[in-house]
Amino acid sequence: MTDAYSSAGSQEPAEDDGRPVIRDKRRIDPQTGKVRDSGAAEGDSAVSQQNPEPGPEQPVDPTGQQAPGSTPQPEAPAGAPGSGPAQGETDVQNEGGADERAAELQDQLLREKAAFHNYRELMKRERPKDRDAAIGSVVEALLPVMDDIHLAREHGDLAEGTPFAKIADKLESTLTRFGVQSIGAKGEAFDPTLHEALMHVQADLPEGSEGTTVVQVMQPGYKIGDRVVRAARVSVADPA
User: Fold this and answer.
1) Which of 177, 193, 187 shows the shortest CA–CA distance to 237?
2) Mutual orientation of helices 87-154 and 163-177 as an angle, nearest 10°?
3) Is residue 130 classed as helix, strand or coil in its secondary structure?
4) Are 216 and 234 in contact (CB under 8 A)?
5) pTM of the prediction?
6) Strand 232-237 vs strand 195-200: parallel, antiparallel, or unpaired?
7) Which of the following CATH numbers is that of domain 136-237: 2.30.22.10, 3.40.50.280, 3.30.230.10, 3.40.50.720?
8) Model pLDDT for residues 79-105, shown as the tens digit of each residue
9) Are strands 10-12 and 180-183 parallel, antiparallel or unpaired?
10) Based on the number of CB atoms within 10 Å of its own CB, is 237 exposed (0-12), middle (13-18) or buried (19 or more)?
């Protein structure tokens, strides 16, 4: 045994990288105690020197922190896997924000739709009034002309077939198409909302008259729908 261990090994210069190569020429394996082949012993020793076993692992603190004396590990850069919130959490947050924005837009759309509906209904109610107001302003401008036509007809100046009579008929028919109605006729019951009594006289009334009655129309009145442009100016009488 002494002779076997006496030739422990020899150091030879390295042929490749300049490091020393130790060749173990012992025939007996110091670990197993068996006789080994000389070529295998030299190869194992050379491999063990060229590829040394890795050193001991760095100690780790059970709390998760690095133990004293160990090499500090670099921190993961921002955006690297394992840093910041998980991708799934980010997707959930983005989806929640999109749902809230969609709900806000839908609510705003419903409000605008309701406002437009109210405006349309208001225009439907106000349009006839605006139309009547426009026609009424035209009739007010034509009142002097309509009064002259009435006086000419009362004095017999509008004989049937004359050019002036045709013009008067066309004007009155045009106003009628736009909803203009004449107010005031002899024999009508006096209505203070439609008539303006300029004179109160004694006169024979038609049979069946029970109240104040129109006996003469001085200036006819006009109305458009329920709006009175001008009340008829009349002379009235009471039954005897």
Assistant:
1) 187
2) 150
3) helix
4) yes
5) 0.50
6) parallel
7) 2.30.22.10
8) 455 555 555 566 666 777 788 899 999
9) unpaired
10) buried
